[in-house]
Amino acid sequence: VNSILAGVLQDEDATTLVDLLEQANLVDALSEEGPFTVFAPTNEGLWKMFFKATRISEIGIIISSLKEKIW
Question: Is the omega angle on the peptide bond into residue 41 within 30 degrees of 0, that is, cis?
Fold first, then answer.
């Protein structure tokens, strides 16, 4: 694996994270030279977090927070 992004793209249990990275327009940023540290929950972990979000606006906050933490 040459990059964090390549590793995430190969992980079948990270498809939700890949979707979020695409929505946050972070795929290109993570393709660039790092260093990067990514704490990546599994699909199950992300869906549990989303399930606890009671409003759509909270999901938007989660996506914004993801973008801020990675960027």
Answer: no
Record the pTM.
Answer: 0.59
CA 56 to chain centre: 17
- Distance in angstroms (rounded) separating the CA atoms of residues 69 and 18: 15
The tokens describing 48, both together, are: 């549990």
Which conformational region is residue 25 in: left (phi greater than 0), alpha (psi within -120 to 50 degrees), or beta? left
Q: How far is CA 21 from CA 14, 27, 63, in A?
A: 11, 6, 8
Question: Could you read off the pLDDT of 16-65 as tens digits, one per residue?
Answer: 888 888 888 888 888 877 777 777 788 888 877 776 665 656 666 777 77
